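Example S7 (C-alpha cells).
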C-alpha cells in the first residue's frame, strides 16, 4: 500500500504570534509544491494566527496536546472543542516531553487519543524508549507496551487513521540520531505490533514517522527506509528553509 509521507513540525514552547506569522509567511512558498503532507503543530497561542495564514495553502495546523475531558475543572488543559473551533486539524499526543516532565502515562495517552478520535481531530501518537531502555535491550518491549496502551479500545477503522511517531527519547534535542537502520528496525517493530492488534491491512495503512532529530542532512537516508513514512520535526521546524528542505527531501 502506498502511504503518503507526512512531515510535521513540532514547535514546542517556541514562537510568539509575530514570530509564527513571519515563519509561516516564509515557509508557504517553499513547500507549496510538496509531495508530502505538511503539518505544523504550534503552541495554543499561535493556532489562530497559523490557521489564518495557512488558509488556502497546503500547510495543515495541529496542536501539541489535547485534554481527555470535554470540559471542566482541568486547569491548564485545552479541550478538543476549543481546538476545533480555531480550525485545528492535527494534534500531538503523548510526546516524550509530556511523559518526561508532566507525568503523561500510557493510560492518559489512551484517554486523550480516544477523545481526539471521537471529536474528529487527527492524532499523532508518540512512542519511544530512553537511552537506558535501549542499552538494556528493552526497546521492543517498551514500544509494544506503549503502542498497546495507547490503542487500547480503539477500533481498527480508527487506528488506521492515526499517525504514529517513533521518538527515541535519547535522540531528541541531544544531537544524537538513530541510524537509518535503527530507526527502520524499531518502526518496523511498531508496524508489527499494529499488525498483531489489528491485522496486516491496518498495519500497512498506518503512517509511522521518525521523530528523533530528523533534519536536512539525514532526511533522505531516513525516508529511503520502507517503513518510515515521514518525520515529526523539532528544531529544524523552527527555520523555514531547514523545514522546507526536510519537506522537499525528494528534490
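Recovered sequence:
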Amino acid at each position: 500500500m502506498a502511504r503518503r509521507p507526512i512531515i510535521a513540525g513540532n514547535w514546542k514552547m517556541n514562537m510568539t504570534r509575530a514570530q509564527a506569522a513571519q515563519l509561516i509567511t516564509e515557509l508557504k512558498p517553499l513547500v507549496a509544491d510538496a509531495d508530502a503532507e505538511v503539518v505544523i503543530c504550534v503552541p495554543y497561542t499561535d493556532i489562530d494566527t497559523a490557521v489564518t495564514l495557512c488558509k488556502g495553502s497546503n500547510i495543515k495546523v495541529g496542536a501539541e496536546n489535547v485534554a481527555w475531558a470535554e470540559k471542566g475543572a482541568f486547569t491548564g488543559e485545552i479541550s478538543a472543542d476549543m481546538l476545533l473551533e480555531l480550525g485545528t486539524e492535527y494534534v500531538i499526543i503523548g510526546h516524550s516531553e509530556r511523559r518526561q516532565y508532566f507525568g503523561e502515562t500510557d493510560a492518559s495517552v489512551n484517554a486523550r487519543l480516544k477523545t481526539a478520535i471521537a471529536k474528529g481531530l487527527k492524532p499523532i501518537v508518540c512512542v519511544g524508549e530512553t537511552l537506558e531502555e535501549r542499552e538494556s535491550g528493552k526497546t521492543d518491549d517498551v514500544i509494544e507496551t506503549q503502542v498497546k496502551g495507547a490503542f487500547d479500545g480503539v477500533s481498527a477503522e480508527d487506528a488506521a487513521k492515526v499517525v504514529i511517531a517513533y521518538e527515541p527519547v535519547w535522540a531528541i534535542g541531544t544531537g544524537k540520531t538513530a541510524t537509518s537502520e535503527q530507526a527502520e528496525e524499531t518502526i518496523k517493530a511498531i508496524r508489527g505490533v499494529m499488525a498483531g492488534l489489528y491485522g496486516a491491512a491496518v498495519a500497512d495503512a498506518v503512517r509511522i514517522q521518525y521523530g528523533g532529530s530528523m533534519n536536512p542532512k539525514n532526511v533522505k537516508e531516513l525516508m529511503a527506509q520502507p517503513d518510515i513514512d515521514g518525520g515529526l520535526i523539532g528544531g529544524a521546524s523552527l527555520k523555514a528553509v531547514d523545514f522546507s528542505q526536510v519537506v522537499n527531501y525528494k528534490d
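Notes on this example. Residues 29 and 189 are 37 Å apart (CA to CA).
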